[in-house]
Structure formats: C-alpha cells, structure tokens
Design a protein that fits this description.
Number of domains: 1
Oligomer: single chain
CATH superfamily: MFS general substrate transporter like domains
Number of helices: 18
Largest sheet: none
Low-confidence stretches: 1-13, 213-217, 405-411
Helix content: over 70%
CATH topology: Growth Hormone, Chain: A
CATH architecture: Up-down Bundle
Strand content: under 5%
C-alpha cells in the first residue's frame, strides 16, 4: 500500500513536537471519545456475559446482536457523512450522534429480555453511525495533511484509553457491588453525559471547512466517480481486515470460557485496550513517516498471532496474551486506515468517503460475527479463532502480492 504524496514534501516533526502542535479541537474530540468509550466499554465488557448468563442468549444470538448493531452503525455513517458534506456542519451531526448514544445507556440495566438489549444496541449504534463519519472528517478538517496520521493516532489513543478505563471501572464496580450486573451498568450513564457536554462546549468547526463543504450541493454519480481507484482499494482492504477480525464480544466470552471469574472478565478488554492505547499514538506518528503497507502487514501479523494465541488458550493468562496482541493489531491499523481514507478523498466528499468506508466494513463485521458465533456453537471456541487466523493469513498474503502501479507514491 502506498502513502499519499502530500506527506513526502514535508519533513515530519519528532513525535513530541507533533503531539504539541495539534489544535485544541483535536484534543477535545479525543477526550469526548475517551469519555464515551469509558461508558460504552463498561457496558460492552459486561454485555456478552449479561446476555448469556442473565438473559440466556446463545453464542449465535450474541454474534447476531453485535453484528447487526455494528452493521447498523456502518449503514448510518454513509448518510451522516454525505449530509455533513452537504450541510457543511459536521459538529451538529457529531453532537446528535453522541447524544443519542448517551440516552440509550439507562436501557441496558432496565432490560428484562434480549429484545430490550437488541433495541438499545441498535439505537446506540445508530448514534455511533451518525457521529462516526462527520467526526472523522472533522478531524481531517482541523489539521493540515502532514498532521493527519498524528491527529488520528492521538484520537485513537485517547479513545482506547477510555476503552481501557471502562472495563477497569467495570471490574471495580463488580467487586464493590457484589457482581450485581444491573447496578454496575447504571454507572455508564455518567461519563456518557459528560462526553456530550464537553463536545458542545469545547469543539469548534473551522470556518474554512464549513465554506468548502457547503459548496457541495448533493451527492451525484459524478461525485462518486471523483473517489479514486486508490480510495476504493483502501475500502476493499478495510473490508478484508474486518472479515478477519470479528466482534470483540468473543474475546470476553473466551475469557469466561477458559475460567476467568465473572467479576474479572472485563479485564480481558482492559488488557486489549492498554495495548491499543499504548501503541495507537506512536503508530499514528509512524503513519506520517513510514510505508503504510509495511505497517498494515505488521498489523495483520499481530492479528494472526492473536487468533492463534486465543485458539490455543487453556488459561486466563494465555487469553490475556492473545488479547494484548489483538490490541496491538488495532493500534497499528485503525488510525492508519482512517488516515488513508482522508488522504485519498476530495475535501468536499470526505464525510461521504468515510461513510462508504464504514458501511463496507460494517457489513463485513456482521458477516464475520455471525460466522464466528456459528463456528463457536458448532465446533467450539477454538474453531472461531482458527478461522480468524486463516482469513487474516489470506489477507496478509494478498497484501504481500499486491504491487502498486509504477510511478505512484512511495509505499
């Protein structure tokens, strides 16, 4: 995979200088993501156990709930991205999306059946879908092209820091509240509300981005043709990555499967997100400096190792190793893919481009999660992760064999 040529003409600053040079809006968006992830991951680190033990759901049901929820978010992102390009008002949609997710948080502890959980996840993911593409486009609007890898890396690092704090808070609350799952789920309401408040107060859209986006009247076939072949290759690559990496709910279920006590099950997400948060920002800086293709290959290699470790796990310690490798894979690839989308999409279509990218990835996640649940129920937990490793290996081989066109940017 090649890097965008815009990055070649600017010598990137050292990591610490790049870190300090980011505008306040990037930091604010990062902390908004962190607070919402504290809330969401507290819920998500307990939800698979809640569904299977309290509500009696099967593994296939868990896979379907998670897959449909994420696919819903992805489909919504297409429309929210296009609307943000049309209106030239990305923040409006970002606030709406975060607010919608926040108001669903009380539904989880109130749920008396799987239908309630499905409905709450569905609406919560609509909120995520509404905010996702405009937020990613807003990040690109707030910084210059040479800073994008750093900006996405910082946002991913703070996002995954929240994803680390959320499950850790879940463990503390489970101990404090004597494993009362419903009581612990109520705690998630507080950080979600704070996230919306911070977003409203601290994030400002750049006027230049509003004017540029506002000139886009509506999405047409001609506009779709303006999205380059390289952009569509990145979309395809993102889909392949997602097929090889099913819902993280299966990491939680694997931790319980190998004997981790129910009150400590969220620690599997803590470990994953520590690795994610630790390496997301350095990986973002590296994306501004080094070959995107090399970083993606390394990320796929980490996913293969993670799947193998989880397939072979016979104890919680081994599952923790697999989870840490999974987090390293996420750090190396997620911010980088966002940067590549931003680099290859025209500014006026950037929201739409992120929406399409997330739609295709969401459909892939639905397919991957349903297959993972089916394999778990039919052949056992190990088969789920062996299949993931096999698909990741195919993706790695395909990326190795891919050769960029001559005369294009470095990769």
């Amino acid at each position: 995979m090649r890097e965008a040529s815009t990055n070649r003409s600017v010598s990137p600053a050292p990591a610490t200088k790049a870190f300090r040079a980011l505008p306040p809006g990037i930091w604010a968006l990062g902390f908004v993501s962190m607070l919402m992830d504290i809330s969401s991951e507290l819920v998500h680190s307990l939800l698979p156990i809640f569904m299977t033990t309290v509500l009696g759901a099967s593994m296939l049901t868990v896979g379907m709930v998670e897959g449909i929820a994420e696919a819903t978010a992805a489909a919504t992102k297409v429309f929210s991205g296009a609307i943000s390009d049309y209106l030239g008002r990305r923040k409006l949609l970002v606030v709406l999306g975060y607010a919608l997710s926040a108001i669903t948080k009380p539904v989880f502890p109130l749920a008396s059946g799987i239908g309630w959980v499905f409905a709450a996840r569905f609406v919560d993911r609509i909120g995520k879908g509404i905010r996702g593409a405009p937020r990613d486009a807003l990040v690109a609007d707030l910084v210059q092209a040479p800073q994008r890898g750093t900006a996405y890396g910082l946002r991913q690092a703070l996002d995954s820091a929240g994803a680390f704090i959320g499950p850790l808070l879940a463990v503390v609350c489970m101990l404090w509240l004597a494993n009362n799952l419903k009581a612990v789920l109520w705690v998630a309401v507080v950080p979600a509300s704070l996230a919306v408040l911070l977003l409203v107060v601290a994030v400002r859209e750049p006027e230049s981005a509003r004017q540029s986006a506002g000139r886009q009247s509506r999405m047409t076939l001609a506009d779709m043709k303006r999205l380059s072949l390289r952009y569509w290759l990145i979309v395809a690559l993102g889909a392949v990555f997602t097929l090889a990496r099913f819902s993280e709910a299966f990491l939680i279920l694997r931790a319980r499967d190998v004997g981790l006590a129910i009150g400590y099950v969220p620690l599997i997400m803590v470990v994953m997100n520590v690795a994610y948060a630790t390496f997301a920002y350095p990986a973002g800086v590296a994306a501004d400096r080094f070959s995107a293709r090399a970083l993606l290959l390394f990320g796929l290699a980490m996913l293969i190792l993670a799947d193998v470790a989880l397939a072979l796990s016979a104890s919680p310690a081994q599952a923790f190793i697999g989870s840490a490798l999974w987090g390293l894979h996420m750090a190396l690839t997620q911010g980088l893919l966002s940067k590549l989308v931003a680099d290859t999409a025209p500014g006026q279509l950037r929201g739409t481009a992120f929406g399409i990218f997330n739609l295709i990835s969401g459909v892939s996640l639905l397919l991957a999660s349903v297959v993972a649940g089916t394999l778990w129920e039919t052949f056992g937990a190990a088969a789920t992760f062996i299949a993931g490793a096999a698909f990741a290996t195919l993706a790695l081989v395909g990326l190795v064999l891919y050769r960029p066109a001559a005369g294009s940017a470095r990769g």
